[in-house]
Amino acid sequence: MQTPQLSLQLYSVRQALDADEDGTLARLAALGVRTVEVFGFVHRAQALADALSRHGLSARTGHAGFLSPGAAAPGGGPVPTLDETFRAAQVLGLEMVFDPFVPASRWADEKEIARTATLLNEAAGRAAGHGLRLGYHNHSQEFVHTVAGVNAFDFFADQLDPQVVLEIDLFWASAGGNDAVALLRRLGPRVRALHIKDGPLIDDPFTSGAPFDPADTRQVAPGRGQVPLDAALDAAPHAEYAVIEFDHYAGDIFEGVEAGIGYLNGKGVA
Fold first, then answer.
1. Which of 261, 267, 245 lies closest to 1 in space, CA to CA?
2. Which residues are paired to 220 by β-bridges?
3. Long-range pairs of 106-114 with CB within 8 A, sequence gap ≥ 24
4. CATH number for the domain formed by residue range(s) 5-266
5. Which among 61, 92, 127, 259 is placed 20 to 30 Å from 34, CA to CA?
6. Closest by alpha carbon to 84, among 44, 38, 36?
7. For residue 103, what pLDDT is reported?
8. pLDDT, tens digit, 9 for 90 and up, residues 174-196
9. Global pTM?
10. Bridge-partner residues for 134, per DSSP?
11. What is the mean pLDDT of the chain?
């Protein structure tokens, strides 16, 4: 069993980054963060790499949309091509890139799930030629439907090539009463990163038809909620990164990050 490396998904501090990128990165470094997970990086890879370097930070994993061809990217404009994504990832020195969200409607149909798996397998094959590993990051909509006798996410995972990696978000994998620990045991060595995220065990919000409000997740600092983080860490012996993330935090986000670092440090993750 390897000990994962502590990381932070920069999406957690997105408002602070928008207001003062250098000040935010300096503050994270002062808290002991050394490795981060990036988002929205494709069209600003060099500028982001330079900013991280100024503060002694490095990025090893990142989120980029590549499983929804033809869709609009967050903030408008087309989704970057695979080649654009690969080049940007190399500029930043990333090892793994995860697609962070495939819409709920695509997890209700067996053929559509199989098409998503095929897209990921093909993309991962191309990424390998660039020294990158590609994978998927879950939310909760992937576990709602039963397909071929299993939940949609397990059906999807069973169709992935061995080179494809997964990042399991423990908060979202626990939503709706799902057993995230059993999931990790089923997936085994395919799980190479974890999102360390805590809060109440809520129902899946993405298939409800209501607008998603991150505040409704009521997320708290790791170790202070109901997500079985301790058991999950033990059940993912191949995870290389333990990534703190908040979709929303009601208090001072830096206090939440610091508490998350303390939680992971207490588990031997640094």
1. 267
2. 198
3. 107/141, 107/142, 107/144, 107/145, 107/152, 107/153, 107/156, 108/144, 108/145, 108/152, 110/147, 110/148, 110/155, 113/147, 113/152, 113/155, 113/156, 113/159, 114/159
4. 3.20.20.150
5. 127
6. 44
7. 95
8. 999 999 999 999 999 999 999 99
9. 0.97
10. 97
11. 96
Query: Are the C-beta atoms of 107 and 145 separated by less than 8 Å?
Result: yes
Residue 77 backbone class (left: φ over 0; alpha: ψ -120 to 50; beta: rest): left
Per-residue pLDDT, averaged over 96-111, amounts to 97
Query: What is the chain's length?
Result: 270
Residue ranges covered by each domain of the chain: 5-266
Q: How far is CA 47 from CA 87, 126, 136, 262, in A?
A: 14, 25, 25, 30
Tell me which residue has tokens 């670092």: 261
Q: Is residue 82 scored above 90 in pLDDT?
A: yes
How far apart are alpha carbons 110 and 162 in whole angstroms? 21
pLDDT digits (tens, 9 = 90+) for 212-260: 999 999 999 999 999 999 999 999 999 999 999 999 999 999 999 999 9
pLDDT of residue 2: 84
